[in-house]
Write a structure and sequence with these properties.
2 strands, about 55% helix, ANKZ1/VMS1, mainly alpha, C2H2-type domain-containing protein, flat
Length: about 110
């Protein structure tokens, strides 16, 4: 499990100065890198990667955000009432920020 988790985040990058999830870098400073990891674009790409999808570019992410903000409230309410198994799975997978595991000795531990 740890190997799979590190493969998702590192993806072969050993210098730690690039984001293999979004395909950006190298970062000029630690603060720039931290700001990237806190950005909604990085979070969106990380969730896509967990579902086996490819990352989206920053331009595409911004255009989708603009499209989402231009939708009226009545459309979003109607959308919430429909049952979509993929969106329910996505909501369940992203509801908690940590994963729980049990080792052979029966001890439970979690990873944030």
């Amino acid at each position: 499990v740890i190997k799979r988790l590190s493969a998702l985040t590192l993806n072969g990058a050993s210098d730690g100065n690039c984001c293999s999830c979004c395909g950006v870098g190298p970062f000029e400073s630690r603060s720039q890198q931290t700001a990237h990891y806190k950005h909604h674009w990085h979070t969106h790409n990380l969730k896509r990667k967990l579902f086996g999808k490819s990352p989206v570019t920053y331009a595409l992410f911004n255009s989708r955000q603009e499209d989402d903000s231009s939708v009226s409230g009545s459309d979003s309410e109607a959308e919430e009432n429909t049952s979509n198994p993929a969106s329910e799975l996505f909501a369940a997978a992203t509801r908690h920020c940590k994963a729980f595991f049990t080792n052979h000795a029966g001890q439970v531990f979690c990873i944030y």
